[in-house]
Amino acid sequence: MSSEHISLTTKTIREQIQRHGYISVADYMNAVATDYYARGDVFGRGGDFVTAPEISQAFGEIVGLWAAVTWQQMGSPRHVHLVECGPGRGTLMADALRATKGAHGFVAAAKIHLVERSPALRALQKKTLSNHDITWHDDLATVPDGPVIIIGNEFLDALPVRQYQRTNDGWAERVITLDGRGELTFSTRPADNIPIPIPLAVTAEVGAIFEFSEAITALVKHIANRIARNSGAALLIDYGHSASGLGDTLQAVKGHSYHNVLTSPGEADMTAHVDFAHVKAMAKSAGVCVFGPIEQGIWLRQLGIGLRQVQLARGKPADVAQTIEQGVRRLTEPHGMGVLFKVITLADPSLPRLEGFP
Ligand code: SAH
Q1: Which end of the chain is more exposed for a tag (fewer CB within 10 A), N or C?
Q2: Residues of the chain with pLDDT under 70
Q3: Which residues are paired to 209 by β-bridges?
Q4: How far is the CA of 152 from the centre of ligand 1 (A)?
């Protein structure tokens, strides 16, 4: 990306602050995400951060097998929309489709849809998935009706959150504005109807922060309504907490290190932890069945990632076998991604218990 482009993100943000006196954390995240993902391949060792499908092919394979089994539980419909939200490089979908080639008609039934806004990432996905027919969407809303299986890995964390802060005068919205030197800085502004659960609102100390994502709320409601209407299931995997809580989880990562969230916006990946209790409550109130959230490590082990690791390593030189083992350990162990990352599924209530949940 050229420096001209970077300054465009900063320019958009500053213009909004000048016009309104502030920019909400959600609008800031949105502006940053659009420019950041427009950079293209930001993943992997040479990029800014590593995601599960880039660590081990076993991750996408297990997700693929889960999707194939779910399709069978749905009665093996002749057509199913297999949708991935935020597919990154397209690695997860490629691994999932390869692993399910032999799964009794699943791949033939699957119409593949990718929800991706970044033109550069769409181009990368097209290359990774060159053997498949793909339809891209800016938004889940344009995926046609019909039986559906939706997948999203590290998608929800990229969606914007608003932040609220307890001040001496009660709750306020935490926003971004300019300080005396013209630098971006956090501030607060009065706000009504703060969506904070009452027990948290009353116990919070001055300075405490609560995060709420309107984008996640709308997406989960949309997914739940679609599943209830069309039959199907959704699998969402992300880092976050199982119970709603207080705390500032906004973070920026660049070159595998933490980066100040207000410095050079658009140059670093910006995310927030997902409130899975809220996701669960939204989905249930829309009338679908919810399994989880459970820890990613438990879910992957339950679906046989240990066996898959043994298969992948069989007959390989010791160093390759060791890399395979390290990858699976990173995905499943508590000091890796096994505990912080959670798996939740939303399902049509007529389906039996989905795989992977004890
Ligand atoms: N799932 C991938 C990539 C995760 S990064 C992996 O596990 O490797 C987040 C992905 O979501 C990127 O592909 C990004 O371009 C996409 N994305 C972020 N916000 C989006 C939005 N609002 N609409 C559509 N795609 C979005």
Answers
A1: C
A2: 1-7
A3: 165
A4: 9
pLDDT digits (tens, 9 = 90+) for 174-186: 999 999 999 999 9
pLDDT attached to residue 257: 94
Residue 41 lies in a domain: no
Residue 312 lies in a domain: yes
In a domain, 266, yes or no: no
Task: Based on the fold, state whether residues 65 and 111 are members of the same structural domain.
Answer: yes
The answer to whether the beta carbons of residues 27 and 152 sit under 8 Å apart is no
DSSP H or E stretch at residue 172: strand 170-178
- What domain range includes position 108? 52-160+212-253+273-347
DSSP state of 354: P
Q: What angle do CA 95, 116, 219 make, to 5 degrees?
A: 100
Global pTM? 0.95
pLDDT over 70 for what percent of the chain? 98
CATH number for the domain that contains residue 97: 3.40.50.150
Domain tally, the chain: 2
236 CB within 6 A, ligand 1: no
